[in-house]
Amino acid sequence: MANGLKIVLVLGSAPDAVLAKNWDLSVFTSRVAINNAWQITPDWDYLVYPEDLALDRLPPEPLLPHQRLIDASEFVPQQNSFGGFVYAGGTMAFTTGYWALGALKPDILAFLGCDMVYATGAGEASHFYGQGTPDPLRVDVTLQSLEAKSVRFLSFAHSQNCAVVNLSKLPESRLLFPRVSMAEFATQSLCQDMVNRQSQLFDRSVVTRVLQVEQDLGYMVPSGRYWERAAEFDKTKLSEIDHMWLQAMQAG
């Protein structure tokens, strides 16, 4: 734990997630893997996975004493406390992020392997384990703008005095999180600066307005199974909310 700050890593399944194999992960207070990412390093503490993940893709028992599996019974209540899946975006990178934000209460939340940019060339792997389904790119009313959903997440993190950063070295990302390197976590002043800079990213008046719009629209599905009620959600109104989130960051 660098300079007394609680730093949490969220590890996805993009090809560059394997960078974590060569890192000293002791800088992170907790390491949270998504779906298959537990295979990258044994140094994970939490594995967050959806109900449709095949059981043979889970790590073998017994787990190490510090390791825990996090399923819908735990991440759905956390997601609902941040406004629910419809506004947050129904894909596991955001779901895991909100769970970590609520359950672990970090000072810094660092993402790797969650850029949601998928290789399209022949023979190129979409995930570290080979070809997989680009879940965030599916047709889904909650995923019209991954960029806007990342701004929303940034804003909720900021409201908890948590900085969010992207450790990816890829030239492109759908996450609009500030980029940092692993080396920066070794510097006390830079770590604290990450937290301080987060407050400069937003126009708080726009954030207040868009949160009110979300509340007034009332798209909450307590079970988390929002796709069962997708016909009730106005795509245009959700797109307008996405636009407001992007404005909130641009204005700031």
Would you give an account of this structure?
This protein is an alpha/beta fold and 252 residues long. It has one domain. It is built from seven helices and six strands, in the order ββββαααβαβααα. The protein has helices at 72-81, 85-88, 92-104, 146-159, 188-197, 204-217, 235-251; strands at 7-11, 30-34, 46-48, 68-70, 108-112, 163-166. It has a six-stranded parallel β-sheet with strand order 4-3-2-1-5-6, with helices on both faces.
Task: Provide a short characterization of the protein structure.
The protein is an alpha/beta fold and 252 residues long.
Give Rg in angstroms. 17 Å
| Widest beta sheet: strand line-up | 4-3-2-1-5-6
Distance between the termini: 30 Å
Biggest pleated-sheet summary? 6 strands, parallel
Low-confidence stretches: none
Work out the strand percent: 5-15%
Question: What is the chain-wise order of helices and strands?
Answer: EEEEHHHEHEHHH
Number of domains: 1
Quaternary status:
single chain
The residue fraction in helices comes out at 25-40%
- The count of DSSP E runs of length 2 or more, i.e. the number of strands, is 6
Structural class: alpha/beta
Question: Which of globular, elongated, flat, extended, rod-shaped describes the shape?
Answer: globular
Please tell me the overall pLDDT.
90
Defining traits:
six-stranded parallel beta sheet; 7 helices; 252 residues; globular
